[in-house]
Design goal:
This protein is α/β, with parallel strands linked by helices. The chain has nine helices and six strands; from the N terminus they run ββαβαβαβαβααααα.
């Protein structure tokens, strides 16, 4: 949905349900992650407002792709996903703000204007997580139950590599890689390698070297 932008309004591409809000001009509404990337690259809005759970391409991956195509667009995450791994993954990907899905419209408007102006905006719960991370003596590993080797395998799995490629990259036998993948799926309680890879991408694994 496109509309004329009133003077002083912030142009926004929406990937989450939101009613008409004073001070925000909605230039596009999208249903999938890839639509968000395409429309943001085409329209270059001040803000992209998305959920972490987007169809076809998750919100963390959307953030990375959007900032390649439209680096001046601020990404604001509005979601019910509050796990620390998702919060920190969004920050590492370049999101400027992270709000809970039950945030009120007044809070959303302030956040949209804030990130558009260059500020970082976080909900109270998220802010506490960020502070805990900043003052932690050592940064927490995203999947502490995994061994170092299993995390290396998961990183390559999240990058879309097949088992034989992972074996070559890590100098392992293919059977050993299969065993590591099975162990990762068991420890992460994921029924498939695709879901394990998706969880890994949410915390920043799988990025090109």
């Amino acid at each position: 949905m496109s509309m004329r932008t009133p003077v002083g309004d912030v142009r926004v591409v929406l990937g989450v349900p939101l009613s008409a809000t004073p001070g925000i001009s909605v230039v596009a509404r999208v249903k999938t992650g890839w639509e968000a990337v395409h429309e943001t690259g085409r329209l270059r809005p001040e803000v992209l407002l998305i959920d972490v759970r987007m169809p076809e391409l998750d919100g963390i991956s959307v953030t990375r792709e959007v900032l390649k195509a439209a680096p001046r667009t601020a990404v604001l995450v509005l979601t019910d996903v509050r796990e620390s791994e998702s919060v920190f993954a969004a920050m590492r990907a370049g999101a400027r703000g992270y709000l809970p899905g039950d945030a009120g419209e007044a809070d959303i408007v302030r956040a949209v204007r804030g990130v558009a102006a260059g500020s970082a905006v976080f909900g109270e719960h998220v802010a506490r997580q960020v502070l805990d991370m900043l003052f932690a003596v050592t940064p927490a590993r995203p999947f502490p139950t995994l061994t170092t080797r299993e995390e290396e395998v998961l990183d390559l799995l999240a990058a879309g590599q097949a088992n034989h490629v992972i074996a070559q990259r890590l100098g392992l036998a293919p059977k050993t890689v299969r065993n590591h993948v099975s162990a990762v799926m068991t420890k992460l309680d994921t029924p498939s390698r695709a879901e394990a890879a998706e969880r890994a991408r949410l915390v920043g694994l799988g990025r090109p070297a």
